[in-house]
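To whoever is on call:

I kicked off a structure prediction for a single chain this morning and the downstream step that reads the tokens threw a length-mismatch warning. I double-checked the sequence; it's 143 residues and nothing unusual in it as far as I can see. Pasting both halves so you can look.
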Amino acid sequence: MTRNARSNPAQAVEAVAGVRLDLWLWAARFFKTRSLAKHAIEHGRIEVGGQRAKASRTLREGDRLKIERGEEAFVVEVLALSDQRGPATVARTLYREDEASREARERQRALRAAARTGYRPPSSKPDKRARRLIRALGDIDAT
């Protein structure tokens, strides 16, 4: 890589024949570290073309990935290859996410937010009177 490519991250996306899967996932900012990407691959949370892959698998342009990260699932197509992590704006140019995948993620996020709206954690610990009421309510089931 030339000195100009280091100073301009947009030029860091080069035409490479292939890149390791764990490196690409890290460069595309799906995981904070390469070891987290490798861990996800080893536990079957990453699929390439519908099949489980190894971290050392060579990724090529046009490959389709299914990435499960926590409660989110992404289905993306690889548009460009990079083995260096750059800014998020450059990382977004490395892949294109399916519309169905994006809509499903947004729906799940909305469901999780709706499930949390009804619960409000108490602002402080219960006082002596509240503790007595809690214990009294607990005794109802004992009879």
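Update from on-call: the warning came from a stale cache, not from the record. Cleared it. Sanity check on the structure: The longest helix spans residues 99-117.
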